[in-house]
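lol forgot to send this yesterday, sorry. struct tokens for the thing we talked abt
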């Protein structure tokens, strides 16, 4: 009898797994590096029976995957690029989910003196004036787009910076590793920095300027443009991401007592 019961339980578990549906979502490396996906995905599967396959790329590449219909939804963090994506008819709508902020990381000695800067533009100007080593994502990600906009706001252009400015063309974790190896400055999202294990001699030196606000938004790919996308599953996922349960999980996620994201979805 015991074996029959165990067999029935195993069969039910197998049937439940077989019934789970799959969808693809392109997400940023900063979201993935934060570790939050490891908290959310098991709960999504438990509540919705939904396996969410993540394609971890920069925002620019995530948007291109959405334009090509290679994913069912995107979770990204560059509002101008998101609005352009929607204007092109590639997404159905944009839903804000959560935010954190960008921070400037650098060597503990802070030879450029950015810790005393009054704003982010001044901090970057100090780095440029001293020609202190700076690592850029250089990968068309949301972080890279924000960094470029800050240089531009300060009247500076990376194209003419020289060897002290190194664009690595990689994700946030790899870029932070490069900065650690070079004892260089870098701009990161706060979540990736807090979850980064190889800090070496780097420290968080500048934060708090409102311009460094970092909003993450969810956009379902438009099924009228790509009929094969699983729009129904994307909408189910969206409703879960704006639920009270998601709010609790996102707001409670911490590393060393520091909160990584703040839920701000509107129902």
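and heres what i got for the seq, position by position
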């Amino acid at each position: 009898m015991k074996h029959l019961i165990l067999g029935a339980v195993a069969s039910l578990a197998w049937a439940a797994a077989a019934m789970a549906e799959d969808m693809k979502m392109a997400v940023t490396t900063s979201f993935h590096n934060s570790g939050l996906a490891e908290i959310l995905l098991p709960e999504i599967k438990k509540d919705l029976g939904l396996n969410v396959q993540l394609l971890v790329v920069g925002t620019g590449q995530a948007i291109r995957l959405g334009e090509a219909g290679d994913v069912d939804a995107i979770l990204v963090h560059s509002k101008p690029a998101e609005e352009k994506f929607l204007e092109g008819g590639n997404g159905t709508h944009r839903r804000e989910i959560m935010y954190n902020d960008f921070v400037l990381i650098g060597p503990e000695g802070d030879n450029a003196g950015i810790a005393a800067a009054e704003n982010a533009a001044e901090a970057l100007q100090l780095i440029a004036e001293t020609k202190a080593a700076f690592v850029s994502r250089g990968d068309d990600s949301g972080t890279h787009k924000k960094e470029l906009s800050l240089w531009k706001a300060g009247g500076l252009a990376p194209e003419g910076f020289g060897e002290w400015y190194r664009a690595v063309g990689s994700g946030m974790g790899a870029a932070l590793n490069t900065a650690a190896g070079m004892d260089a400055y870098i701009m990161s999202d706060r979540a990736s920095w807090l979850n980064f294990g190889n800090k070496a001699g780097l420290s968080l030196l500048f934060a708090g300027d409102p311009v460094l606000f970092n909003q993450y938004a969810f956009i379902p790919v438009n099924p009228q443009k790509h009929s094969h996308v699983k729009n129904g599953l994307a909408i189910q996922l969206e409703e879960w991401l704006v639920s009270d349960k998601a709010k609790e999980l996102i707001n409670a996620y911490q590393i060393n007592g520091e909160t990584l994201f703040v839920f701000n979805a509107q129902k």
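Confidence is low (pLDDT under 50) at residues 2-18. anyway ping me if u want another try
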